[in-house]
Amino acid sequence: MGEVRGGCCPPMDLLRSEPMQLVQLIVPMESAHVTVSYLGDLGLLQFKDLNADKSPFQRTYAAQIKKCGEMARRLRFFKEQMLKAGFSPKKSTTRAGINVDDLEVKLGELEAEMTEINANGEKLQRSYNELVEYKLLLQKAGEFFHSAQSSATELQRENASRDIGEESLDTPLLLEQEMSTDSSKQVKLGFIAGLVPREKSMAFERILFRATRGNVFLRQAVVENPVTDPISGEKIEKNVFVVFYSGERTKNKILKICEAFGANRYPFSEDLNKQDLMVTEVSGRLSELKTTVDIGLLQRGNLLQTIGDQFEQWELLVRKEKSIYHTLNMFSLDVTKKCLVGEGWSPVFATKLIQDALQRASFDSNSQVGAIFQVLQTKESPPTYFRTNKFTSPFQEIVDSYGVAKYQEANPALFTIVTFPFLFAVMFGDWGHGICLLLGTLFLIIREKKYSSQKLGDIMEMMFAGRYCILMMALFSIYTGLIYNEFFSVPFELFAPSAYACRDLSCRDATTVGLIKVRPTYPFGVDPVWHGSRSELPFLNSLKMKMSILLGVAQMNLGIILSYFNAKFFQNNVNIWFQFIPQIIFLNSLFGYLSILILMKWCTGSKADLYHTMIYMFLSPTDDLGENQLFVGQKTVQLVLLLLAFVAVPWMLIPKPFLLKKQHQDRHQGNSYTQLQSTEDTFQLGSNHDSHGHEEFEFSEVFVHQLIHTIEFVLGSVSNTASYLRLWALSLAHSELSSVFYDKLLLLALGYNNVIILIVGIVVFICATVGVLLVMEL
């Protein structure tokens, strides 16, 4: 169940969850689909699964869900194809003007067409890549044969010119011997040409040499640009190779090695004239294939564009249909198998809205029998439902991310509306940065109608969804920034001049020494003088540190109160006396006392060391406090508080398990027979008997649970108080970063009498402030 989107509703109860009721619907089969669709649009009914004992394949609408799943698969296929092609589906808020059956047929036709286009495109692209490799092979390997033929021709000319003048008596005999030699005994060399990945070329050459025992001749040439591999479709750096061999056995070995190394082989002729003809033929085929591939890509792009225009509508329709049938599978068939019976939880205020939706569904589906709506009485624990609007929704989501409150418990989101932005502002306190944040948030709020109908990026979507939360954070940042008196880390005398002045020029840069009060106290926030120099710990940092502790202790007390502020808890006095009260005593005996000391030190102006006071409250509680004493009788108060803190731990741990055991025994003693007064009483007694009569009270489990709870609370009180010091640490980091950007970028640029340096410094300062302090920290 989600946000209420229509109808007349009573005011929201921000503190408690909405009162819930268990309702039953009896819906005719012919109007069931429309009824669930209208109830889903309303979003105020959470159905129970009445067929939990059945598998998904045994349910009534399993076939329809399978059909929707198949359509969803086709839509995912189209989305993948659009992403590969660089298309993005157009966002649409209108509903698809097509029913599910027609959409199923259309998606099937589009999938078949897209599959055929992809298959043809892949074949054409593979042929094109093969021809590109073939052309490179013809060019590179042709250079081998051309250079070899040129060298052989030159060598023959040299030998012929040398042999003319050196004829002897033996020359005719040699010529006769050469002419009488059997041509079948001449060795004829073969060759294999192709392309091999460059990273494998060295290993390819070594394996060839070892496999053939050096009886091959290998020539390689580097291809300058990466080549698209026809098989993998990836761009790979390759080398052209030509292997010369002798014998069929050697050829078979070379072919196996080429296959193992992924070398693509192509036919090649040693005749230079044929090589030129092949280059011309391959170039022509490449041009034709390029045209064909471009036409196929254009056709594919037009088809994807058509799909993308209606993709959002189709996807929404399929998801809605699948959700409807999932919900209908939670209904049970009545005896006549003409009606569906469903049960679910709804808010009490939504009764009229649900009844109106049922009437509209019966009318629109032309059903002769209307749906029946009735409220059931039950002892089950209802689910929790909080009504939200666009302002409270982000705060509720923050709370729900940690845990959902139980039914009718206090809703922490109400307090989070104030505490979450305020704690952020404690860390972010700078009214200059707060104004920048406020302007950006107001821009989102003013244009929320436009942005709500657009598809935004992940970060922008998150910021837009939390725009009102950021608005509160900006307002609180301005407030705390005025208290800290920081505007981009620079203090200003906004409300009055500083109350302090120097006695002489020697104390010009001092923060405390040498300053005298000459005017009334600064009316609002921190006095500008108290910022001090960066080389020492200013008063403002001490203020932030102590304020973090005060906020932490206050919020932990509020958390304890809220965690038990529900009717069910206070019905049991054991929880009040042996859990709620000792937790409050333990927390405030230590950290509540520390908070009081901080406030007293601020009010009295004392120089007492609170660290020393708290440490020796445990180590030496009976020693005199000396100059660290803030009020009369402080040592006695500390002893009492320390004793209460030590007593509170066993107070939480020991009594509660024994008292729960006694309550369990008293509740089940002598309850074997009870007078039955009515059918409703019988049902109630049976429910109590089922829920309590057969339960065994495991004292050990209850004691261990209480032990864990006690240890968790005691350790958590200490660690959580320390954790709240992160408010001070992050506030200090924010202030220091802001100061560094101001001093090292803006002031440094202002120190140069150069307009270009000034402009660059201002631009860098703005980018650093926005990128680091506003965007990254936020």
UniProtKB/TrEMBL annotation:
<feature type="transmembrane region" description="Helical">
    <location>
        <begin position="547"/>
        <end position="565"/>
    </location>
</feature>
<comment type="similarity">
    <text>Belongs to the V-ATPase 116 kDa subunit family.</text>
</comment>
<feature type="transmembrane region" description="Helical">
    <location>
        <begin position="465"/>
        <end position="484"/>
    </location>
</feature>
<feature type="coiled-coil region">
    <location>
        <begin position="100"/>
        <end position="127"/>
    </location>
</feature>
<keyword id="KW-0472">Membrane</keyword>
<protein>
    <recommendedName>
        <fullName>V-type proton ATPase subunit a</fullName>
    </recommendedName>
</protein>
<feature type="transmembrane region" description="Helical">
    <location>
        <begin position="577"/>
        <end position="600"/>
    </location>
</feature>
<comment type="function">
    <text>Essential component of the vacuolar proton pump (V-ATPase), a multimeric enzyme that catalyzes the translocation of protons across the membranes. Required for assembly and activity of the V-ATPase.</text>
</comment>
<dbReference type="Pfam" id="PF01496">
    <property type="entry name" value="V_ATPase_I"/>
</dbReference>
<feature type="transmembrane region" description="Helical">
    <location>
        <begin position="636"/>
        <end position="654"/>
    </location>
</feature>
<dbReference type="GO" id="GO:0000220">
    <property type="term" value="C:vacuolar proton-transporting V-type ATPase, V0 domain"/>
</dbReference>
<keyword id="KW-0812">Transmembrane</keyword>
<keyword id="KW-0375">Hydrogen ion transport</keyword>
<dbReference type="GO" id="GO:0046961">
    <property type="term" value="F:proton-transporting ATPase activity, rotational mechanism"/>
</dbReference>
<dbReference type="InterPro" id="IPR002490">
    <property type="entry name" value="V-ATPase_116kDa_su"/>
</dbReference>
<keyword id="KW-1133">Transmembrane helix</keyword>
<dbReference type="GO" id="GO:0007035">
    <property type="term" value="P:vacuolar acidification"/>
</dbReference>
<dbReference type="InterPro" id="IPR026028">
    <property type="entry name" value="V-type_ATPase_116kDa_su_euka"/>
</dbReference>
<feature type="transmembrane region" description="Helical">
    <location>
        <begin position="755"/>
        <end position="776"/>
    </location>
</feature>
<keyword id="KW-0406">Ion transport</keyword>
<keyword id="KW-0175">Coiled coil</keyword>
<dbReference type="GO" id="GO:0051117">
    <property type="term" value="F:ATPase binding"/>
</dbReference>
<keyword id="KW-0813">Transport</keyword>
<feature type="transmembrane region" description="Helical">
    <location>
        <begin position="422"/>
        <end position="445"/>
    </location>
</feature>
